[in-house]
Amino acid sequence: MYDGRKHIILFFFLSIGIIYISRLFYLQVIDPTYKSIGATKAVHRQIEVPLRGQIYDRNGKILVQNEEVYNMYVTPNKVKHLDTLRFCRVFDIDRNCFDSTMKVAKKYSRNRASIFKKQLTKNEFAHVADAMINFKGFHFEQSFFRTYPGNTLANALGYIGEIPRKLYDNQEHRYYRKGDYIGLTGLEKSYEEELRGIRGVKYTLMDVKMNDKGSYENGSYDTVAVVGKDLFSSIDIELQKLADSLFQNKVGAIVAIEPKTGEILTMGSYPTYDPNLLSGKAFSKNYRKLISDPDKPMFNRTISAFYRPGSTFKLVQSVVGLQQGVINARTSFIGADSPMGCHGHGLHHMANLNNAVQYSCNPYFYNVFKRILANSTKKSPFIAAREGLSRWRDMVGTFGLGTHLGIDIPGEKNGLLPDLGYYDKIYGENRWKFSTVASMAIGEGELGMDVLKLANIMAVMANKGYWVTPHLISGVGEDNKGMKPERLQIHQTGIDAKHFLSIYDGMEQVLKAGTARQAYMAEIPILGKTGTSQNRKGRDHAIFVAFAPRDNPQIAIAAVVENAGYGGSSSGPISSLLIEKYLTRKIERRALAERMKNTSFKTVAATAAN
Amino acid sequence: MAGEINIKSGIDWVTVLLYLLLVTIGYLNIYAAVFDPEDPVSFFSLSHNAGRQLLFLGLSTVIVTLILFIDYKVYDSFAYIFYGFMIFMLLATIFLGTPIKGSRSWIKLGTFSLQPAEFAKTVTALALAKLLSTQGFSLKRFNGLWKAAVLILLPPVIIILQKETGAALPFAIFMVVLYREGLPGIYPGLFLGFVIILIVSLFYSKWYILGGMVVAGIFFWYFILGKRDRGRQILYRLIGLYLVFATFTMGLDFFLTKVLQPHQQRRIQALVNPDADPLGAGWNVTQAKIAIGSGGLFGKGYLQGTQTKFNFVPEQSTDFIFCTVGEEWGFMGSLVLMGLYLSFFARILYLAEQQRDKFARIYGYCVASIMFFHLLVNIGMTIGLMPVIGIPLPFISYGGSSLWSFTILLFIFLKLDAHRSFKV
User: Fold this and answer.
1) Does pLDDT of B109 surpass 50?
2) CA distance B26 to A413
3) B372 in reach of chain A (CB within 8 A)
4) Residue pLDDT, tens place only, A116-127
5) d(CA A27, nearest CA chain B) in Å
6) Measured between alpha carbons, how far is A569 from A574 in angstroms, rounded to an integer?
7) Which of A241, B48, B162, B178 pairs with A145 at a CA distance of 20 to 30 A?
8) Mean pLDDT for chain B overall
9) Structural domain spans, chain A
10) In angstroms, how far is CA B115 from the centroid of its own chain?
11) Among B263, B330, B353, whose Cβ lies nearest the Cβ of A172?
12) CATH topology for the A44-233 domain
């Protein structure tokens, strides 16, 4: 029935065949382009990896630099009449090493180059360059490794290394070859695309003996390598180094942000390490040492370790309470009940909001939180608590707590800001009420945030109601632009500016006559809050958060010193010193600085040693 | 049984001869592709692809024997069961397979890997043949058409989930089989139209295409069809056709720019402009053309190909094996190989038409079509007429999965053919 069709199908097959044969005839017999090349020469593709982008601080000082290094390659079938003894002497290797390396190279390919010796420094290269004329079959390729002239900011900068097997296999389109370098952590990783530049490709003609016979098509197919884009960081290296020295022998973290822009001025996690350790030949050895250090210097505490905020959280509770209208600045809780004790001071702590902030009064804030959670029309305390907590959580969540702020390095954790489901799971629905969650009133209990989030809260305080996504890099490339817009988003909390203003007095008094007197500075009005974060495993952690100056704030800061007891004793002065340095470009209070440098709080390693 | 005794006279020796020629050429060229003049290895060593291909060939004789001794009725009866099992295996591979180069389509067995997707074509062919040969089945009715469509489309959809789009493409060629079995001509017609639009759109923007179609449509109607009776009806049909093609053009543009992955987009672009991305897709095309083009009329001689010897062509022993043929045997070699393949297809089509059993005929068309598709894309890719899609050249590309699946595909048909005279 469909007989005609079988002819059509056969005709179709044969037509394609004829088209292909014609095309082959054209390619192989008629077109001269390929004949001349292929007959005696072949086209060789060479990839050129460009210099990686460097990173500068906010004042143009260099944070990460490239340093030249040379890799030596051998092409086995070109090694002729080699004076092995002399060779080994020049390169200071023994005969066995030479033999085994040559064996591996030969096994890979006799025609192709294999690595013979990695990473000779400029000096080593200069030393042997002359002798190379006697050693046929060996050549050098310039490469680079990273150096860190500032010896600081290791955790945020990150490091580069050879691409790991898993990443290499899972590439959808092969950009990286085996052994190529790629950013593995920190800024090196998150800005990998910008830093790596664009590889160049060079096509050269080679004859059958693999000798270079010039450029293919005069380089018209070549792509020029494009150097990686430099990054301009908002970090102030002077400030960072000061933080490093003040945090000696302490465990903790500090973050300083410029409130209006979200630019990060300082970001330190302690103990830390010299980033130069994870670069170059000694990488593996140093990596192993660092990774097994019990104090975890490679762990970036600023974004991955969370602490209970302690009394610093009272600032957030204040503005939330004010916004919800359950309290005002003159609300007094004198005579009110509270299971929490004060630090043993007078009744006037409970008289109004600012006093409560100044003296960090626990019973006051217990009652603030109680009102917030009772802010509901429901009669049952269980259901009211649900409504209250939900509304409270939404408001607190606008500060960026319990989620990612969106910083431009990997590893940021959410922290903990409990929602209804959290308590429902533990206690059962409608089986928990205010008394269950009361410890959050003073920043204890089921709350957890990293130091970046603490600093961000202070940025909100300084801006009176909004925060900009904190970021380490403010400019990319030559024109200093190229920042992705989502990295600079403005987030509104929706809380009126006047509410923030309401507690400014209290915050200023904290340093003048409150819990952080050691951090007070006459010249600069600093507004802050201390916190003592409960720690089950030892002494409490000392937290201090602040911004300065009061009008037109330039810096918001948060510092945690683990196991240091009261917030006012170490984190306070350290933060204050950094503020002084940033705003006045010098330190007048030398004695205080010395004292901070020399204080030490037991690290894990130290504890173990005892 | 009477059938078994007559196996020797029943098997079509012409096809077997062509098959043997192809696998021999395949083996010789794989050897040439992996040949390293500084370090020549024996023809039989298992340390490189040629030796392994020999091993695969050896094992395929076991497969061939098995196929020839299994009762021919088994293939018909168990077709759906094979199909079901194959679907199961494809799904399992998604979860149990080892990821290689971004796709999850391989199962590792020791040092060898198996790709279930390769066998899917054979099994689908059997199931399709069974479906289409069922009593009362007709492709003209929607009921039959959609059953066939689902049967054909299910495996490639799963394969795409394995992220191995290359292996899913051959299923398109089943359209040819459907056409032979009565699929209304409008379908292949439309399909061909789509293909033409696809090709043209690589060179011209979609607006030219839309405009061009309007002009063509007007031309057709006014000069050719308009004069006839029922001109109105034809006009409506033309408008309908135009709308279909226009939607396709827009949809294609959307697909190419928004749906395709960047590396796939680049492969298509490399077709039109190989110099645009010399690092990737364009490089393969350029190297392949250099290798083939430099072969001249008679080639450079066996084991003398410079491009081949120095491994300039990527995937030399698998997807780009034809480059070795082109470079070392020249145009004469290419002509002979094309000739062999075309004779091979023609022979199978001829045998298929000789079948009295509908199942066998349909299956035969499937065999020829599948192999044709592989030739179309594989060789087309090496000469720069098709985008770089990694599918093997039947019997010639290195690979256990592909060799065995094509062997099974072919010999089941030979077995069915051997019994055609016994079918009452």
Assistant:
1) yes
2) 56
3) yes
4) 887 787 788 888
5) 5
6) 9
7) A241
8) 80
9) 44-233, 237-609
10) 15
11) B263
12) Penicillin-binding protein 2a (Domain 2) (3.90.1310)
